[in-house]
Amino acid sequence: MPDGTDPAVFPDHADWTWTYEGYEPAREQLRESLCTLGNGYFATRGAAPECAADSVHHPGTYAAGCYNRLTSDIAGLTIENEDLVNLPNWLPLRFRTGPGAWLSPDTHKLLEHRQSLDLRSGTLTRTLRYEDDDGRRLAVRQVRLVHMGDPHLAVLRTEFTAEGWSGDLDVESALDGTVTNSGVERYRRLAARHLTHAHAGASEDGGTVWLRCRTTTSDIRVGLAARTRADAPAPVSVRHDDGRAVHLLRLALADGRTVTVDKTVALHTSRDPAISDPLHAAVDRVGRAPDFTALLASHRTAWRQLWRNAELDVPTSAGPVLRLHLFHVLQTLSPHTADLDVGVPARGLHGEAYRGHVFWDELFVLPYLNLHFPEVSRALLTYRHRRLEQACFAARDAGHSGAMYPWQSGSDGREETQRLHLNPRSGRWLPDHSRLQHHVGSAVAYNVWQYCEATGDTEFLHTKGAEMLAQIARFWAGLATYDGALGRYRIRGVVGPDEYHEAYPGASRPGLDDNAYTNVTAAWVLARALDLLRALPGPRRRDLDERIALDPDELDAWEDVSRRLHVPYHDGVISQFQGYGELAELDWTGYRSRYGDIRRLDRILEAEGDSVNNYQASKQADVLMLGYLFSPAELRGLFARLGYRLDDATWQRTVDHYLARTSHGSTLSSLVHGWILARARRADAWAFVQEALAGDIADIQGGTTGEGIHLGAMAGTLDLVQRGLTGLETRGGTLRLDPVPLPELSEYGFAVRYRGHWGVRLRLGAGRLSVTVPDSDQDPIDIALADRTVPVEPGESCTLVLTDQDGTRPTTA
Ligand code: BGC
C-alpha cells in the first residue's frame, strides 16, 4: 500500500474488499468519503447511522445536479454561492437497551468495530459489538446499499444479537430533513440551510413514513419514503416531529437469537422525469420495493454488468487501488447518468468540497468513459451543450464573442466560482480570480473531439459538437489581439491551469498574458473547428452558418490566429506565460525544511505576507499539460503549425524546469507528472504514479478527501493505464498504440468498447501486446503501431511482439 494509507485498512485483492478495523474518530470523515455508496443518481456517505452530524460525523446524501443558491455576508461583502445540496438524511437508525442514552461509538464502549466495503457487490458492511452501561453486550451487523439497478432505492439491513442477556431493544429509524451543508470546515461561516418546508407523515397502516421538503431558491422538491420492518413481532409506532419522520420499534431480543431490521428507502426529486410529484413517487416506489434479499440480488447483477463493461486487470499492488478508483467513478457517473442533465462534479457525489461544482476535471474523466460508457460521455457533453447559450451570454457580457464557459459550473451554467476564498492559514478572506481560467473552454472542445473520435458519433459531432466547437473557437479568435511588434496574436489577462499565478507581481489587475497552455490549446481548438466546418455535410453547414451567423471572413481570421498565436520561451524552455522567466526563484529547500508539506505554497506565502505570484512556483502541471493532452507527434505538429520547432531536447528541458518548480498542490498534478514522465524521464515516473494512486486513500492533500473524493485524479489513474501507458489513441478511425513500459506497472489488461465493438480486450506484458476483438458483424479494427497497421477481424486475436524493450517501437507481429 502507498505510504500514508490508513494503517487500519486492508484491501483484499482476491475478495475486492477494503476493510477498516477499529473506530477512529480522527479518520471517520475520510472513511465516510471512501465508503460512500452511490449509483450516479445519488450517493450517501459512509456515515454511522446511529450518529448525527457533529465534528466527527458528516453524514451526507447528494443527488446529481441538485443545486441551491444562498447568500452570505462575509468580510463586509454579500456573496452568493450555489451548492450541491445535502438532502435529508435517510440513514438514521439508532438503538438502546433501556430508557437511557442511545448507543453510539462516541459515548459507549465498543468491543469491536469493523467496516468493509465490498467493491464487487457495492455494499458496505459494519460489524460492531457494543457494551451498554450495565455491561450488556449487543452485536450489530449492518449492510447497506444504494441500488445500482433502481437508482431511487437504498436499503439498510441491521441484525441485532443480544449476547448473554434477553430483553427489549428500542430502535428508532428516521428520515431527517433538518440537515444543513456543514461538511466543510472552511465554509462554516457561509449560509448552509438549503432545505425548507419539511413535512413528515406516515402511511395509514404505519408501515411507511415519509418526508417532503424543497430547496430554498432553486425550488427543487424532494420526497423520501422509508419502510422499516423487523423479522420478528415488534410493536411499531410512528412519530413526525420538526422535519423528521420517525419509526419506533421495540424488539424483544432473546439471548443469542438474531433479529433483523430492514429499512428500505426511496428518493425522488422534482427534477425526475416520469413522475407526478416526488413524494408520491417515493411512497409508491418504496411500497412496491421487494425485500432485502431480492434487492441485494438485483443490485449485484447491476454491478456485475458494470464490472464487465469496465474490465480492468492489474495484478500488482496498484490493482486494488485502481479498482477502488473505478468503483467511485462508476458510483458518480453510472449508466443512469446518461438520462440526467448533469456534469462531472470534481469531488464526486461524496462530499461538499467545491460545492459539487463542475470544473475542467472532465478532461481527466471523459477520455476514460468514452471507451466504456459512451452514452454517459455524451450526456455529460450534452450538459455542456445545454449551457452553451449561457456561455455565449457570459462572453457577450464581458465584451467578447463566442462561448466563454465558466470555470465552475452548476445548475444553469453561469459562472459559479466564488468571489472570495478563505486562507485557513492566515484566516483572511481573499479575492478569487480563478474564474480567469478560460482554458476550460478548450477542455470542453477537446472532450467533444475525443468522444467523437472514440465513438464515431458523427451525429453528435455534426450537431451539438460543431456548435460548441465553433463557439469556443470564436471566443478564442475574438479574445486574441494582434501585436504588431511581435507579429503574433496574444491572449492576455488569463489564468492557466496552475492557479497559483493570478497576476504579475504587484499588479493592480489580475490575469497573465500568453499562457502557453491556453494559447496552444486555443490554436488546437481553432484548427479542429476549421477542419470540422470544412468537413460538415453541406445542408448541415448552411444550418450552422445561419444559426450562429458565421461568415467566411471570420473563418479566415480563425485560420490566421490558429497559426500565429504567441508561445513565450525563456532560457530555452517554454514559458508558462510571458514574463514567467523574470519571476524570482523560490528557496524550495528552505521552505521544505521550514514547513515540511509545502503543497499549498500559496497559502504559506500569503500567510507570510508574501505572494506566490512573485515566484517561479506552480501548483500543478501547466505547460506540461500539453504533454498530457497530445501525443509527442501531435504536439510537435501543433507547434510546427504555429511556426515553432518543438524538439525533444526543448521538451525535455521544459519538463525538467517545471518539475523542479511545482509544489503539487492538486491531486491532478502527480497524475499528470506521472503520465508525462513515463515518456520523458521514466525512472522518476513511478513516484508520481504512486502518489496519484495514494491521493485519496492516503489523503495526500491533507484532509481534503474527507470533504469528497478527487474524481479527476481517480479517473485519471484509470486512464493512465488505458491511454497513458499504452499510448492508445483513437485518431482517424484507427486504434493507435505506442506502449511505454513502466517496470512497476508492466503487466495489465483491460477491455474497451470501440466503435460498435463491445469488449475489445487488450493485454500488455512481457514485451507483448495482445488484442482480442469479440465476434460480431462489425468491420475489423485497424491496430496501428509505430511502423505498421494490423487489421484484426471480429472473433480473432493477435499478439504483437514489442521487439524494442523500451516498448516505443513495436514491430513484429
Ligand atoms: C485544481 C483545479 C481543479 C479543481 C477541482 C483545484 O485544486 O487546481 O485544477 O479543477 O481543484 O478539482
UniProtKB/TrEMBL annotation:
Lineage: Bacteria, Bacillati, Actinomycetota, Actinomycetes, Kitasatosporales
Domain of life the protein comes from: Bacteria
Any one GO biological process: carbohydrate metabolic process
Gene3D superfamilies for the chain: 1.50.10.10, Glycoside hydrolase, family 65, N-terminal domain, Maltose phosphorylase, domain 3
Protein family: Belongs to the glycosyl hydrolase 65 family.
Span of domain Glycoside hydrolase family 65 C-terminal: 728-790
Entry keyword set: Glycosidase, Glycosyltransferase, Hydrolase, Transferase
GO molecular function: carbohydrate binding; glycosyltransferase activity; hydrolase activity, hydrolyzing O-glycosyl compounds
Active site location: E499
Ranges where the Glycoside hydrolase family 65 central catalytic domain occurs: 323-718
Protein name as it appears in the record: Family 65 glycosyl hydrolase
Residue span(s) of domain Glycoside hydrolase family 65 N-terminal: 19-271
